[in-house]
Design a protein that fits this description.
275 residues, mainly alpha, Cytochrome Bc1 Complex, Chain D, domain 2, two-stranded antiparallel sheet, 1% strand
Length: 275
Amino acid sequence: MTTARSNSDTKRSRARTKLRRRVAGLLALGFALLSAGLLFSAFAPQAQTAAAQQDSALVRKGEEIYRQTCSTCHGGGGEGVKDRGPSLVGVGDAAVYFQTSTGRMPMARQEAQAERKPTKLSDEEIAALMAYVDSLGNGQGPKKPAESGEALRGDNPARGGELFRLNCSNCHSATGRGGALSSGKFAPTLDGVKEEQIYTAMLTGPQNMPKFGDRQLTPDEKKDIIAYVKSVTDGNNNPGGNPIGGFGPVSEGFIAFIVGIAALVGVTLWIGAKA
């Protein structure tokens, strides 16, 4: 009897010990969660407030730049001005980046087409202007990619070449040298164009260029196109010969015609002299 009672007391003692441990563990977990919640509520709003204040300051700076450089043609609130400039509401920061980083905007005067020029705005001013114009459409327009430089070059330039010839070569030529269009417009050469500028141009479709959203060309396909363009415009795609401007069969056919006519004239003169 004594042994049985002792065993029963031992089991009860062990059960109580396990219960105490479980309760202690639950209390410790609850205390940890409560502490984490208090810390988050104390510091997260401050971080969010600081980020919001920083974004608000960037937008205000962009608004100042906009009023100084863009409002004459695009209106005081980006609504556009008839026969001067289109509305900028909803165009997104990608369009602002492309137009300003390539020097096409601000334009000095109205022309058939805005040409690439040295940029008039610094990188900081462009970033601020992007933030302001993007705020006009509540951030709904196309966004400039987070990657830059070689990070935007895909791994399959061969596929990029096929996509470029299918979608772009009609205007830019197969080697990206550009070409004339109607009404005084033209497709510009792609020599020296940054990867970010090619990507944002595909997203926004500046001037006569169509837009290629992610449904038309996926981000990976866009990057492959960029890889192909850089391969044919960086001067590393002409092993063993002179590219003759890189215009393809146009310049090559012209050279062949000149050389062939000269050879025929020479042979004709030689036959005449023999006769």
